Amino acid sequence: MYSPSISGVATSSISGSRIFVYEVEGMRQSCETDQTSNPIRRSGSVFIAVPYDRMNQEMRRITRMGGKIVSIRPSNSAPETHGTVAPELGQQSQKSGETTKPMTQAKEKIQVPVNLYKPANPYIGKCISTEELVREGGDGTVRHVKLDISGGNLHYLEGQSIGIIPDGTDKNGKPHKIRLYSIASTRHGDNLDDKTVSLCVRRLEYKSPETGEQVFGVCSTFLTGLEPGADVKITGPVGKEMLLPDDEDATIIMMATGTGIAPFRAYLWRMFKENNPEYKFKGLAWLFFGVAYTPNILYKEELEQLQAEFPDNFRLTYAISREQKNVDGGKMYIQSRIQENADELWELVQKPKTHTYICGLKGMEGGIDEGMSAASSKYDVDWTAYQKQLKKEHRWHVETY
Ligand code: FAD
């Protein structure tokens, strides 16, 4: 069971993050069975993947559905789980119902949940709170949105995303399509009780090129405008590109622009804020964070507090484009910081324990490559070829949108 310690730092048992597989007979086919678990069927039995902390709840649900549990086993020993796959880091496939494979870098096999809830039967979560993250004088609206997911089987890992189906219909009267959002909380959620998921959402607003009118994005406006208690349709989780390695001695280089901070907040909270017995980070985490103005530095206080508390393990480098100047007198974008630190970064990326993650605005990769290319060319190394190799080794991870 996951429980906060006296200091406000969480403690958990290993079992808190484990998945078990129930083999169930006699379960009535219904909306509920289809919606909550998407069980695998074989000769009258269904197999349901259940997180440790939801076992009792799931047992009650199965009994309610007329089912009888004939076996329970840890999913590590199960060749089949449904909608839950064990990854090798960086694998791209996100199909549901894949077979379980061992995760090469894990101490024990870790199951990555994928597509537990699909668009036809989304999980209905509830808004707990939304909190403005842009301070006075900053640009736009970005909110930390916390959703209750305690009622079903939705669970996730750091670095994954969930889909949101906004309320209402599009201009053709059809339900809106899903939009993806990177998860900003650890697998245990902000309340450390495994019952919430948090997002970091920028409200899209722009001037229509045709009419000059202010236009607001459908889903981002829906999410940032949620009132506590409101229902939210959630799908997923999806994504294996941005998973954090289990290696406690790894070097984790993170490059974020704007809401690209979301997965990195989850990593950093897991590394430094939670006291997980199965993961005690002892390596180096280095965050490069690009924003327009100081008030746009999302989660600023918490990031700086972490840096003050863990100066040997966490480096924080901002690029504040509208306030700082780069060496050439131009705007300080994230790529300028990468170029400033390129030699050190080049040293780091060559180490087998280093993983680099890029998340945020599309287009941020170009400048990063330029910086790395300048550094590697000093040693006659072609950056494009080297990066290809890093990607092959699942040590160069990119999620831009
Ligand atoms: P929509 O109503 O869908 O409007 C978007 C459309 O508006 C665009 O397709 C384009 O046609 C038009 N448009 C946009 N800007 C302009 C412009 N300047 N001029 C003219 N037309 C324009 N977003 C977050 O805020 N936080 C996240 O953590 C996050 N994570 C993501 C993770 C992934 C893997 C992906 C793929 C996307 C992520 N996004 C995230 C983006 C998110 O999915 C949505 O795309 C975003 O919120 C906008 O959706 P919307 O419904 O508000 O906008």
UniProtKB/TrEMBL annotation:
- Return one GO MF term: ferredoxin-NADP+ reductase activity
The FAD-binding FR-type domain covers which part of the protein? 120-244
Q: Per the record, what are the reactions this protein catalyses?
A: 2 reduced [2Fe-2S]-[ferredoxin] + NADP(+) + H(+) = 2 oxidized [2Fe-2S]-[ferredoxin] + NADPH
Q: Where is the CpcD-like domain?
A: 17-75
| CDD domains in UniProt | CYPOR_like_FNR
According to the record, the residues making up region (Disordered) are: 73-106
The record, for InterPro entries, names:
CpcD-like_dom, FAD-bd_FR_type, Flavoprot_Pyr_Nucl_cyt_Rdtase, FNR, FNR_nucleotide-bd, FNR_plant_Cyanobacteria, OxRdtase_FAD/NAD-bd, Riboflavin_synthase-like_b-brl
Keywords, A to Z, come to: Antenna complex, FAD, Flavoprotein, Membrane, NADP, Oxidoreductase, Phycobilisome, Thylakoid
Give the range the annotation lists for the signal sequence: none
Q: What is its EC number?
A: 1.18.1.2
**Class of this enzyme:** oxidoreductase
Give any Gene Ontology cellular component.
Answer: plasma membrane-derived thylakoid membrane
What's its membrane topology?
Peripheral membrane protein
Query: Which portions of the chain have biased composition (kind: Polar residues)?
Result: 90-103
* Cell location: Cellular thylakoid membrane
Q: Which residues bind NADP(+)?
A: 182, 202, 259, 321-322, 331, 360-361, 399
The cofactors required by this protein are: FAD
Family indicated by similarity = Belongs to the ferredoxin--NADP reductase type 1 family.
Name this protein carries in UniProt? Ferredoxin--NADP reductase
